Structures are given as structure tokens and as C-alpha cells.
């Protein structure tokens, strides 16, 4: 492999794989893609990745970064030093998040992108980005001015026939409350219950960017090289021009030179690469003993997520998903408008989850899992004490009162819906759900966990009228939902403890004008004050879209690639 290329892309995730495919369409351009994780090819896609049920892929330690602990909530505590940390999932594999995520495929509201333009990202308003949302997708069902028919990423909706009785009961209860069913999450932006739009093909198999974009024909291009299990360590600079990067793979370290280097390491790792290389908040870099090359305060700031929590219930046998069929666990979502002053329409998202996890206990758990789809809280990514190690990530969820109030209201609404469904007798009394350490431990897809949770499930089923109580003992933490929703203070404190994200980290190298001190790049992803360097991934988002963010990230990569080609 040549040590000098035209374009070096570091990070082969949702965005990086798209860039590699698009930029190598020009045969005179030598492109090198460097990915820290392993390769994925269509012919031998691991079952967990291909499956329509994604709940094994994102627990697979071979596909994700290890040791990435983050702080989510706790912003209401008096003593900030006691805020707890928890593991956070980020992909480490070609295709990145698109290979391990929950497969949801939606775009957000047109106003999300008009907001980007207003925030200084010129050229990113809805009517400029819609052509790229259409370009990336192959909608298997719908056509018209909002949909694409020929792109690399298939999108389809989970059919009603795949709804479990639990999901059907929840949708029926929402209908009783006057909430209409709508056909298309990616259609006109309105409230309602939608079948989940998912990145699944005709055979209900996931198509990550590693295979949808990096097809055998693309990989065969002589001007494209893909290095997997190779990590970018830091950028190489001559003054304020980036001339390449230091890469480490099994053969050791080497320097690759490039006319242009593009960071596509995701919203947690791209700012880290910048900071390690001397581009970032001056004081922070100095504290870590790093020479400041370009002081840019916004690097690592503006970290965004969708703050979330859930209400669970024990599913009696008739309410469950079929055991062996690999179906998606979220057949439908409920979008609603909180109506809180200053928040836009459709700012809340509720997933109707028909199995809590892949295993025996998870199969017996249904959930309403809700999140603030238009969130205002902002956190930050900084370097760890050892700059070469894992970063410090503090999401500061619920630091904005609007997010806290809406999450509290969502918890009450979810509790009320599940209480009404429970009256029908197919599910037990609802309880607050939290992602405990125990739940995480049992989430790892191992034989031992399958056995233990299978036995736990049988014990619950065999306990007759006490099933719900035993289930509560095994999966709950003793908090009573009815007490919680009746007490503002208790509910707020509880959410502060359990709030988590949905792996939608974004915004840490946001686009904006050069005179905006919080902006890191211009509206083409070029880092302000540095030549030869772009960022292109979820870091670029100025504000968080009201959506799962895989399609928005792919859209960003499609659009940046087209801007590079002029
Ligand atoms: C568990 C999970 C569930 C999710 N569910 C959904 C969902 O259902 N729908 C949805 O739309 N979105 C979902 N998302 C979010 C979405 O998948 C991500 O936001 C999106 O993939 C981000 O794309 P990216 O290109 O910014 O980063 P990534 O896709 O994370 O890509 C970054 C890549 O860079 C590599 N990398 C990092 N540092 C280096 C380095 N130094 N050298 C070399 N390589 C490096 C990483 O290994 C990774 O492959 C989910 C995400 C996760 C993690």
C-alpha cells in the first residue's frame, strides 16, 4: 500500500464508508480508508449483524469499543463529583454504527435542517438536504418527491403482521386516546403512530454502509484501499496544514501523507483526534501538555444526545414475540408534540418495544421507551488524563430544564398507557425500567447468559399469580411507578439517576461560521484555521435532529462528498 494518497479517511463507519465509496468514483483520486475495527462483507455478514433483530449486534464486544465509560445525568446533584458513569456503546467495525445500531431509519423534521442553516451551516436547509436523503435510500415501498428508489441503503417499514399482541394492545390504547396511525415516519412531519422505518432489505436483512456502499465492485477499484484493524493515532501537521496522519496496524506505526485528511471517527473520537493533534480548546490542551497548533474552543463541545428512559411490563405468554423468528423488536413508534413553550412539533419519540433483550427474560419484557427527540442539553468530550487513552465524555443530560420537564411528562404518559393496557390482563403492572449493571451483564450474548436468563424466564412463567411480583424482583430496583409519577421531586431525581441516551452522540465539531467561536468547521466540514483537514460524521451536526441519526449522518457524508467533487 502506498504511503502517499490524495485523500486519507480515518474512520470507516456510517459516514466514512460512504465517503470512501463516493470519493473513489473519480478514478484519478487515490483514496485510503483506515478503520480501527474489523471488516464486514456481504457474503459473510455475521448473523447478529444481518438479523432483523439488532439486540445481539450492539452487545457484541467484538464489534464495539471497550472501556468507553460516560457520564449521562446527575446534573441535579449537589455534589457533581458523585455523578455516576456508565458504559456507552460505539461501533468499532467497518460500517460503524450502521452495522450494529437499532436499524431505525428516519430523518427528522424539515425544521431540524432549516435550524442548521440558521445556526450558520450555510446550504444545509431542508430543501438542500432532501436530495441527499433521497440519494442514499432505496425505499422498498413508497415513492414520490420525499423518497428515493435507487440508493445503496434499503428502507422499509415493519409490517403490521409482525406486531406482537403487546404492540397491538399499545397501539389500540393510543387509538382510544385519539392518536392516529400514519403510514410513513419519513413522510410529512406530523404526530401519530408509525410503523418503524428500518434499514432492512427485501429479505429483512440489515444493510450497513460497509456492504451497501462498499460493494465488491467498489472495493475492486484500483484507486481505493481499505485498511481494517488499523487505528489513526494523530494528525501530522506542517504549521497549520495537515499533511497526513500516524496510523498503527499489526505491522506497527507508519505515517501516511495525504493532500486531504478527513476525520470520520464519530462524534466521540473525531474531536479526540483533533485535540491530540493540537487543535482544540487552548487551555485544555495546555493542561494535558499538548502544544496548541490551532486554538478552537468548540472542539468537543456541543455534545448532544436524546435523553431517554423507559417503563416496562411483564408480558404474559400470549403477548410475546414469537420465540425463534428474528423480528425487529420495535414494530411501531409514537411521535407526539409536548406542547412545552418554545419546543417544536413532534419533539417527543416513544418506541413500542416488544422484547427488552435477546434473552429469556428480555423476551418476557415489553417497554415503552421514550426520548426527548428535540433535546437542548449540551455536554462535552475532553481528553482523558492520559491523552492517548479513552476520552472523558459528559453528556450533561437534563441540564436543560425543558428536557427534564418533557422526560418527566413522557414517563407519566407511558405509565398511564401501560396501566390501561395492563387492565386487559395480557401484561403485568408496569414498573420503571433502568439499564442496570445487572441488565448490561446479562445482555452480553453468551451461552451462560442464555442459560441463566432462560431459567429465570421459566421461573417467572411457573410462578402463576405471583409472576409479576417475581418479575419485578428480578428486573426492577424496588422503585414503585405509582409513587414516582405522583411526586414531581421524586420523579425528577429518579430520572436524573437513570437517564441515558440512545447512542446518538453528535455535534462535537459543529459546522458554523469562522467568527462563531463555538464552530469547528465551515459548512463543507473544513476545519477553521487548518488546511488539508475536514471532519465528516455526526460531529458536524449544529443541533440534533428529531430522529435516529444514522440516515442524517449518511446524508451528511453524501452531501460533503458531492461538495468535494464540486
Ligand atoms: C447501539 C447503537 C444503536 C443505535 N441505533 C440507531 C438506530 O436504530 N437508528 C439510527 O438511525 N441510528 C442509531 N444509532 C446511531 C447511529 O448509528 C450513529 O449515530 C451513526 O452510526 C454515527 O455515524 P458516524 O459515521 O458519525 O460514526 P460511526 O458510525 O461510529 O463511525 C466511526 C468509525 O470510526 C472508527 N474509528 C474511531 N476512531 C478511530 C481511529 N482513531 N482510527 C480508525 N478508526 C477509528 C470507529 O471504529 C467507527 O467504525 C445507534 C448507535 C448505536 C451505537
From TrEMBL:
Q: What PROSITE patterns does the record tag this protein with?
A: GMC_OXRED_1, GMC_OXRED_2
SUPFAM superfamilies assigned: FAD-linked reductases, C-terminal domain, FAD/NAD(P)-binding domain
Q: Which cofactor does it need?
A: FAD
Per UniProt, FAD binds at: 93, 503-504
Keyword annotations: FAD, Flavoprotein
Q: Which branch of life, at top level?
A: Bacteria
Q: Which Pfam families match?
A: GMC_oxred_C, GMC_oxred_N
The record's section on InterPro entries has: FAD/NAD-bd_sf, GMC_OxRdtase, GMC_OxRdtase_N, GMC_OxRtase_C
Q: Does the keyword Glycosyltransferase apply?
A: no
- Alphabetized PANTHER family for the sequence: CHOLINE DEHYDROGENASE, MITOCHONDRIAL, GLUCOSE-METHANOL-CHOLINE GMC OXIDOREDUCTASE
User: Which family is it part of?
Assistant: Belongs to the GMC oxidoreductase family.
Its protein name is Sorbosone dehydrogenase
